[in-house]
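Backbone-to-sequence.
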């Protein structure tokens, strides 16, 4: 039996062998696949990331009412465009950091979201949402041009958030913001 020693030339600095490149590529593909699986479809046009908490404490936790998801799908079909979800679920840590109440927030229960159209009139969207029997809380935020909607268990509440205050929707506010 021949006892031969095999010597390899040292590789130049910065050189990677093919095995290392394949391993790195495989790791990137795995991470991408894991992220894709985390962002699963909740409905035909909306994914988990549309509803997740935006803080870093809860690592993108999410909870959302399927009633609200159904309303979003309905709005998608009516307006022939994806509705932009600005905020849906908010974890307790997120609410506390913003100075909000964890107990009073419908966002914390997965029963509220803030939305707007990318194209079109959000005042018109507000007017339409206000006719939907599932929606019991609806607010218009003119400064950000978006709508809050929720499925509270209480009586219907309709408001405008103006100058840092929640104002019941009056005739003068309806006229000012063209809210039906």
């Amino acid at each position: 039996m021949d006892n031969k020693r095999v010597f390899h030339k040292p590789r130049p600095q910065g050189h990677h062998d093919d095995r290392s490149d394949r391993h790195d590529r495989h790791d990137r593909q795995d991470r991408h696949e894991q992220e894709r699986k985390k962002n699963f479809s909740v409905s035909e046009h909306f994914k988990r990331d549309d509803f997740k908490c935006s803080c870093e404490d809860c690592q993108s936790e999410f909870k959302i009412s399927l009633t609200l998801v159904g309303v979003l799908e309905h709005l998608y079909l009516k307006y022939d465009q994806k509705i932009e979800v600005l905020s849906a679920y908010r974890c307790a840590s997120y609410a506390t950091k913003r100075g909000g109440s964890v107990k009073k927030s419908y966002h914390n229960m997965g029963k509220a979201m803030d939305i707007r159209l990318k194209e079109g009139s959000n005042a018109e969207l507000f007017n339409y949402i206000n006719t939907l029997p599932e929606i019991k809380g609806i607010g218009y935020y003119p400064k950000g041009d978006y709508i809050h909607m929720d499925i509270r268990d209480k009586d219907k509440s309709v408001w405008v958030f103006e100058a840092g205050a929640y104002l019941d929707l009056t005739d003068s506010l309806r006229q000012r913001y063209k809210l039906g």
